[in-house]
Design brief:
The protein is of the alpha+beta class. It is built from 19 helices and 40 strands. Strands 1, 2, 3, 4, 5, 6, 7, 8, 9, 10, 11 and 12 form a 12-stranded mixed β-sheet that branches. A 4-stranded mixed β-sheet has the order 16-19-21-20, covered by helices on one side.
């Protein structure tokens, strides 16, 4: 029997907590979350109120093939703090039932069902089936037609369109929002009343096919437009549902401080005219609807708990706006609610059970925006037993000014660092540092920050208090090491910690050019901090304890943001090492003299990708030069492009930056078909020689392991992967908790190297084909629709001469990919002005020789390809000894194959231009005049990765 079952007024199951689940032995040992959810749908439809529903693909047998019957279709799978959530949507007559879904919350460890939330309808009998349109193409709705539907006109009403039809269950009380003085965007603005309905027999609970009309309009002529949705019955034209797509009370706040917003030089002493433009309207999330409406929600409530008296503001209706000038207590109160609610809501969004995490804290937490009077300070005191957060208190921003310090979300995050600790270590401090609040403030504000100084932890506060000097780029040489001269267990330690944590964030994507990658890195770093603190049980003087908890947090996370855990624990340790931790003899109670970086692990083998085994952020992880290919097993160390269809040979150089000799060295080798979006291990195939052992490697030493044999199958791009292991330092392929995109596997484990190479055809015809066009594959590794964007960068000299590389395939350089979908992308060169060999050689000598294609998924850099241009002679400088037939698809055996690929006969008397070379190639390599192509190679090395 379930722990609890909640039903709505129709008797439909809305929520089941811990349902009595059927046996799952029939499932495969490694069943996916969707397979588990499908199993529950097959085995327990009655308990979740879906006995009469058909489920697409799994319960059709024996049921009538009635397309009008309600059906459940898989919609999405997402991960919440390691727990999968599988979502199904309900359809009828092929249309989505508006707002009707079923979600299964599954324990990520046991793969058992924890709860089910449902808004699906028990039965769907459609009153107007004739309204179904044969096609669902978007249709424009004219302004007069929309006005007729609504019965009124709104300012700026435009862009009306029907995107789709849906099935809607009529709820007369929900036709539009009915609230005394209801408003959006400011007090006193009311939503006009819809015209009466005309449908005969229209009653509550009836289902209708309706047109979903989306449009934009303002409520008053001086207001910005907002988005609206109207559900209209096609025959009558009646609007059965109308909503502006803005909900709950709003408030004007500093979502970010002015400095973070645009780097402006401004202080709390500025006028309202100067400060008010930095306000933005934000929904007061979680607010509990009430009339009048206070700033009270499920997580925090603004309250006057301390002197001086400053009553929190209220507004007349739940959908009004807390809109005040910056230089007022009311504005500080509004910011206090928004900024403090965000603390807990971020954790909720990351998948944490907030009530369980803060077991000793009573909710909603009181927040007093004027508790400290004119003091430039904030506090997070504990409760009477010291086992939870009592309240949050805020003072002023600047002496003699009325602006509250609660206007800074960074200050709120600092105080939250103490709130996190109270429930777990019964103290506001770690014992080795004040808190992690500065780190959270700096990391979570950085992704879109425009601050003039990226490393000023509190720029808005600092602007009014020049003496405040809190930073997160502290140098160990200047005494800011762990156990260095400036370290202490309070604010000194906090700046050492925030610098360390900010380095972690930067290394895992915080230094990326794309906002999406920076945002992902910030959220991941914050998640690990939250989880690590939650795992702590007591204060400690040793920061190594927190390092271990961060590593444990990574290793035990099934997934976060759709990406498997177990990939970041080495980066965590390195971030602390770089700040001076892991020094022999350095410990609490000893003289604080550390001024150098800490020691690496005892054993730390790596394949050098240009970072010498460290973890500074590097966007291109697919061009590791300590992996190379030879066309024969000759032990050479110069990379050669592999040949398609024949055996090639890869070598790997393994180094050891550890303090002890690395024993038990081995390397595992993989390759993959070309494309962005590769996931390990599923998309990677062991090479023909999958594993080789290597010799022991002394500290600072290296060894070459190889050759690994493999046969590439695709021209133009082959992905090579090598994973080094040693006793005491296994690769992260042994710690990841599930399949993982290569851009989260490769750059965060120095044991792993990736090099994407450009295999070539062993025939002149193939060479010609590759020059005409090039094909790459883009994969979506997620179970959701993503937007893919390709960014192409040519060498500067080619851009100046008007050359271009175009995407010739459907969708161009930006397109959507469905779940697990892949797409062929065709690149083609558009020539510009003439090139001469001398110009090309000079550009290559300067390093201006790469065509780079970067792949972004939802604005997150996930990989790419690098084509390196070369213009070089055949090694022996002589014509081929064997005539080459351009119509022959093979070039012979053995050395003749390699020779044919490396060079095509060229002119001996005069050096041709690139255009002349291409002209000769178009003649299929035949002799033209008295000139023959002797030696030319343009080489494109494609390198890429995916999320």
């Amino acid at each position: 029997m379930a722990d609890s079952v909640v039903r709505n007024e129709y008797g439909e199951v809305v929520f089941v907590q811990r349902p009595a689940t059927p046996e799952t032995q029939a499932l495969a040992p490694h069943a996916t979350a969707q397979q588990v959810a499908d199993h529950y749908l097959r085995a327990m439809p009655e308990e979740i109120g879906l006995a009469d529903a058909r489920v697409a693909g799994i319960r059709d047998a024996g049921l009538a093939a009635d397309t009008s019957a309600p059906m459940l279709e898989f919609a999405a799978e997402r991960e919440i703090a390691g727990n999968p959530v599988v979502v199904y949507r309900q359809t009828a007559m092929g249309l989505e039932v508006f707002g009707a879904t079923v979600g299964f919350q599954i324990d990520g460890r046991t793969m058992e069902l924890e709860s089910t939330q449902s808004s699906a309808h028990g039965s769907v009998e459609i009153e107007n089936p004739e309204a179904l349109e044969p096609t669902h193409d978007a249709r424009r709705v004219t302004k007069p037609a929309l006005k007729k539907h609504l019965g009124f006109e709104l300012p700026g009403m435009a862009d009306a369109r029907i995107e789709r039809q849906v099935v809607y269950r009529y709820e007369p009380d929900d036709r539009e929002e009915h609230q005394e003085g209801a408003c959006i965007g400011g007090p006193g603005v009311e939503i006009p009343e819809l015209r009466p309905t005309t449908i005969d027999g229209l009653a509550k609970g009836q289902h209708y096919i309706v047109d979903e009309i989306l449009f934009r309009a303002s409520l008053e002529s001086d207001q910005a437009p907002v988005n609206w949705r109207a559900l209209v019955e096609p025959e009558s034209g009646d609007v059965l549902y109308l909503r502006p797509l803005v909900a709950a009370a709003t408030g004007l706040v500093f979502d970010q401080d002015p400095q973070t917003q645009n780097g402006v030089a401004i202080t709390a002493a500025a006028t309202n005219a100067q400060l008010n433009p930095f306000r933005t309207s934000q929904t007061m999330a979680g607010i509990a609807s009430s009339t009048p409406q206070p700033l009270t929600g499920n997580y925090v409530r603004v309250a006057d708990t301390q002197a001086p008296v400053a009553a929190p503001p209220t507004i007349t209706t739940p959908t009004g706006q807390f809109g005040y000038d910056v230089r007022t207590d009311e504005f500080a109160a509004t910011c206090a609610y928004h900024n403090c609610d965000r603390l807990f809501r971020t954790m909720q969004d990351f998948g944490f059970n907030v009530a369980a995490y803060f077991g000793g804290t009573s909710f909603p937490v009181p927040v007093d925006h004027r508790a400290l009077g004119d003091a430039i300070n904030a506090q997070a005191p504990g409760n009477a037993t010291g086992t939870g957060l009592l309240e949050l208190r805020f003072g002023r921003m600047m002496p003699g000014q009325p602006v509250g310090i609660a206007t800074s979300n960074r200050v709120a995050w600092h105080e939250f660092g103490h709130g996190l600790l109270w429930d777990h270590v019964s103290s506001p401090n770690f014992g080795f540092a004040h808190s992690a609040g500065d780190g959270l403030a700096s990391i979570l504000n950085d992704p879109d920050s425009q601050a003039a100084d990226r490393f000023d932890t509190f720029p808005w506060v600092h602007a009014g208090l020049p003496g405040l000097d809190r930073r997160h780029d502290r140098s160990i040489a200047a005494g800011w090491a762990w156990f260095g001269p400036n370290w202490n267990a309070q604010y000194g330690g906090e700046q050492v910690l925030s610098t360390t944590l900010f380095r972690l964030y930067r290394s895992i994507g915080g230094d990326a050019a794309s906002f999406g990658t920076r945002q992902r890195a910030a959220e991941t770093a914050a998640f690990l901090i939250f989880k690590a603190i939650g795992q702590m049980t007591a204060m400690t003087q040793f920061p190594e304890v927190f390092v271990g908890q961060l590593q444990t947090a990574d290793r035990t996370t099934p997934t976060f943001k759709g990406i498997a855990g177990g990939a970041l624990h080495k980066v965590v340790r390195w971030a602390f090492e770089k700040q001076g931790l892991f020094q022999p003899g350095a410990a609490p109670g000893q003289p604080n003299t550390v001024s150098t970086e800490g020691l690496p692990p005892d054993v730390d083998v790596y394949i050098d990708d240009g970072r010498a085994g460290e973890y500074q952020y590097q966007a291109n992880h697919w061009s590791c030069q300590d992996m190379w290919v030879r066309r024969s097993p000759d032990g050479g160390t110069t990379h050669e492009q592999p040949i398609v269809g024949v055996t090639n040979y890869m070598y790997v150089r393994v180094k050891n930056r550890g303090t002890q000799t690395a024993d038990g060295v081995r390397v595992d080798a993989y390759h993959a078909l070309p494309g962005s979006g590769l996931t390990f291990p599923g998309d990677w195939t062991p090479m023909t020689t999958p594993t080789l052992t290597g010799p022991s490697i002394a500290t600072g030493g290296s060894a070459i392991v190889g050759p690994f044999t493999f046969v590439p199958t695709q021209v133009g791009h082959e992905c090579l992967l090598a994973i080094a292991h040693a006793t005491g330092d296994p690769g992260n392929d042994t710690t990841i908790t599930g399949p993982i995109p290569e851009h989260r596997l490769v750059p965060f484990d120095n044991n792993i190297g990736q090099r994407n190479v450009s295999p070539v055809y062993p025939s002149l015809r193939g060479i010609l084909k590759q020059l005409r066009e090039h094909v790459i594959w883009i994969r979506n590794p997620f179970r959701r629709v993503v937007t893919v964007r390709l960014e192409i960068e040519l060498p500067r000299f080619l851009r100046e001469l008007g050359w271009d590389l175009d995407v010739r395939s459907d969708g161009g350089a930006k397109f959507e990919l469905g779940p697990r979908e892949r797409r062929e992308v065709v690149l083609a060169v558009e020539p510009g002005e003439r090139l001469v060999p001398g110009h090309v050689k000079r550009a290559i000598a300067k390093g201006d020789d790469e065509i780079v294609v970067r792949t972004y998924v939802d604005d997150d850099l996930v990989g790419g390809m690098t084509y390196r241009l070369s213009f070089e002679a055949d090694r022996d400088g002589r014509p081929h000894r064997k005539p080459y037939d351009s119509d022959d698809e093979s070039a012979g055996d053995g050395a003749d194959v390699a020779s044919a690929v490396r060079a095509v006969d060229a002119a001996t008397a005069a050096r041709p231009t690139i255009e002349e070379i291409l002209d000769l190639l178009r003649e299929d390599g035949r002799t033209v005049g008295n000139r023959r192509i002797r030696t030319v190679r343009m080489e494109f090395d494609l390198e890429q990765d995916e999320d």
